[in-house]
Amino acid sequence: MDSTRRQITKIAREVSKFTVRMLKTDGVGTAEYDFIHAVRKNPGITQAALRELFTLDKGAAARRAASLEAKGYLIRKPNPEDGRSQLLYATEKADSLKNSKASVEALYYEWLEEALTPEDNAEFCRILNTLYDRSRAESRAGFPHLTQRFFEGAGKNEPSAD
User: Fold this and answer.
1) What is the pLDDT along the chain (162 residues), one digit of tens a residue?
2) CA 20 to 30 Å from 126, out of 46, 77, 92, 145?
């Protein structure tokens, strides 16, 4: 039984709603933000690679890239290895958007923390860090314990590596 009632997920969802609302004041929607984030993490990525990443059709990827270029978040440079494609890079404006997202999220969490006494907040943060460390370690290991529990609980055998 999940004694947390998935409240971490529910809080994260509310933070996301607020963040999306605030990002829209910069004229960026969630799909565009994800596109910018992918370009920031993969400087010089092609539209074809972004299409694969997001399972977009050619037209949708081209429209999104063009829109973000027009808004000043992306720039294109010729691909020296393929004259038919161009490489996409994030601009300084895109980098400041990342900082903006982080600051909006921080604002939300700071507001939440105001409901706690300093002592309760310290204990909450200690416990949250313990849970985060466990989550990160499981993720980095490829989720072996959770995968096993998932398949045991579903009465299924794990898929083979073949």
Assistant:
1) 789 999 999 999 999 999 889 988 888 888 898 899 999 999 999 999 999 999 999 999 999 999 999 999 999 999 998 888 899 999 999 988 877 888 899 999 999 999 999 999 999 999 999 999 999 999 999 999 999 999 998 777 777 665
2) 145
- Residues 56, 73 contacting (CB under 8 angstroms): no
Amino acid found at 31: A
Closest CA to 90 of 65, 76, 73, 78: 73
Q: Which helix (H) or strand (E) holds 121?
A: helix 118-140
d(CA 134, CA 143): 11
Q: What is the pTM of this model?
A: 0.68
The residue extents of the domains of the chain are: 7-115
**Which backbone phi and psi does 87 adopt, to 5 degrees?**
-100, 140
89 three-class SS: strand
Both ends of the chain: CA-CA distance in Å? 34
Dihedral sign, Cα of residue 126, residue 131, residue 133, residue 134: positive
